[in-house]
DNA sequence: TTGTACGCGTTATCAA
DNA sequence: TTGATAACGCGTACAA
């Protein structure tokens, strides 16, 4: 592997001169400098990242930690992050799984963005205490080295509930996420708040898991006890889709006997029939904002926690209780600002 | 940041003793060793990755390079890679975009898996020449430091074409990928081979781009010239879905006037109505095999190029030309081994 | 057990 | 001014 030493030898100068030349310092004559650059190019010199990182105590790499690599949410989110990172001279790497956590304390990366509920908050807190910079997208944490960029779950869940209630629903099933999920807890809290405010609305909570299977199981439960028009608010789209799938095998029609609304407005939701009503937000913006915040706290700029706003997307999966004998027409998607 | 030096000071030993103790060498007394370990834990010592990488000349990190972070193909593919990497003591990071290429020559990663047609082969060849280890999933390259793990595109395209022909189709549109795409070229070659063999089959090539919009444009073209039963083989599912979407706005029904088959069998394909026929393969296996091969060539073991086998998945989107007045029944998905 | 050279690049200090 | 010397960052591993 060719190092600055080789270049120095070839150019007949010292390694420091080479380093200065390569970094565009004005401590070297243009003449020597261009000679050195030429030799570097000729030898295909590439600096060693480990050496640079070791000395400069920064890698110019940011890491994002995800629960897994699948998931429809991630595409735009990551593009947004990457765009900001690259514009600011950082590279972005995507990691998943406990093994990769070491990247942060070992200083392979200059900071981390967390969207992985399996990454323990205690662990994050330790890292923050040791000076590592972190942005969390999936929990609340207060620490000078941690910044939050959270979805406005409360607004989203409220929008969804109000939409169902406006359509005339009096009985609403709510399918939750897994126990530890911050998003689930937040959304559920808002659901309860809205429901408690409306005296004539009954709501039933069903424990889910944010996965398709959870929605399917919820469907089974609902079909068994069905006794009249009802709506289901699945706290994420994946469960909503599982639920719709399963309902398709039953006598209950989505957007007819049962209305369904989700949360996240993932790509797939546009393709289910009828179109799934959901809560939308800009995943790209979420990602770019997270990256911006991380870069700021790395630079030592103090920043406040941020929030990502949400909108309601209507769909044929919600059309009011028992449309009696009228034909159910597919609506166009309309985004309603909150 | 606490380093071995701090531990050495606290323990009253030399840094080399600390290093040996931390690495479980038997060159240190159990007594001193456990004492050192205790102090290390107490001080929250974490080794510095840059220093270790610099000295050992390996990072134990593999990188996978993708064109973008979206794409339904990637979930299982990456899980497969990660599983193998972790089992073998490696970490996996996911990168995208030209900026991140530097990770390889700068030796931040020990090897790379490429699934990104925008990553120039010449560039890869240079890296290979300089000793970097690479596995390519999207092109053919011959070099001792490069291994191929490719889809069996020929088999897949042949299966798809034969399926359409078996159903009685005589007129087949083929929507291709973008110019430079290896997969597109390979699949198209197989298409031609099959079509040329069948004297009474007419085939028409339409240039696409492997994106939804390409399928939509192809649909427009086909609708304009439609003059009787025909089938469309989209060289990937994304285009097939775009095409189906657009056809839904026309008078031509998918699985009725027009049969459609795709390639990749992405998650979404299960949700379009009628279910999209496609060519399936194990993305997880593809990923795990790629990782295995990369780790092998890093270890200096010589390996042969590998191939991922494919199967046909039938769907309601293909049901034979003009089903006349009979009702088209949704078929179950059946996987047919090739 | 320990001293020390080494991996590679950066940068402060000092000499020509 | 221009450029060389050397310390440094941190961990590894050989020689003593």
Automatic annotation (TrEMBL), chains A, B:
SMART domains documented for this protein: HTH_LACI
Protein name per UniProt: LacI family DNA-binding transcriptional regulator
Domain HTH lacI-type: residue ranges: 2-56
Signal peptide residues on this chain, from the entry's feature table: none
Lineage: Bacteria, Bacillati, Bacillota, Bacilli, Bacillales
Keywords assigned by UniProt, alphabetized: DNA-binding, Repressor, Transcription, Transcription regulation
Highest taxon listed in the record's lineage: Bacteria
Pfam family, one: Peripla_BP_3
Listed GO biological process terms: regulation of DNA-templated transcription
An annotated Gene Ontology molecular function: DNA binding
């Amino acid at each position: 592997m060719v190092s600055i030493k080789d270049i120095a030898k070839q150019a007949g100068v010292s390694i420091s001169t080479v380093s200065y030349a390569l970094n565009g310092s004005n401590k070297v004559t243009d003449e020597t400098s261009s000679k050195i650059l030429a030799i570097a190019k000729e030898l295909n010199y590439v600096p060693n990242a480990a050496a640079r990182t070791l000395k400069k105590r920064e890698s110019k790499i940011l890491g994002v930690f995800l629960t897994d690599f699948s998931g429809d949410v991630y595409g735009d989110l990551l593009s947004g992050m990457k765009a900001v990172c690259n514009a600011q001279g950082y590279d972005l790497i995507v990691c998943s799984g406990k093994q990769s956590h070491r990247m942060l304390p070992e200083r392979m990366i200059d900071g981390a963005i967390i969207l992985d509920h399996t990454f323990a908050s205690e662990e994050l807190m330790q890292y923050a205490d040791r000076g590592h910079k972190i942005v969390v997208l999936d929990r609340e944490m207060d620490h000078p080295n941690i910044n939050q960029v959270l979805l406005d779950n409360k607004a989203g869940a409220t929008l969804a509930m109000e939409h169902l209630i406006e359509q005339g629903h009096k009985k609403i099933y709510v399918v939750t996420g897994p126990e530890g999920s911050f998003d689930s807890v937040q959304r559920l809290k808002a659901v309860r708040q809205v429901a408690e405010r409306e005296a004539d609305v009954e709501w039933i909570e069903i424990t889910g898991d944010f996965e398709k299977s959870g929605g399917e199981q919820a469907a089974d439960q609902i079909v068994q006890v069905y006794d009249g028009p009802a709506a289901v608010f699945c706290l994420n789209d994946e469960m909503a889709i599982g639920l719709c799938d399963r309902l398709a095998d039953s006598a209950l029609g989505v957007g007819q006997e049962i209305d369904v609304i989700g949360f996240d407005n993932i790509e797939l939701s546009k393709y289910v029939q009828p179109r799934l009503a959901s809560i939308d937000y800009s995943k790209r913006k979420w990602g770019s904002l997270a990256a911006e915040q991380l870069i700021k706290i790395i630079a030592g700029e103090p920043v406040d926690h941020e929030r990502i706003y949400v909108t309601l997307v209507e769909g044929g999966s919600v059309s009011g209780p028992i449309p009696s004998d009228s034909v159910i027409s597919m609506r166009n998607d309309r985004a309603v600002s909150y």
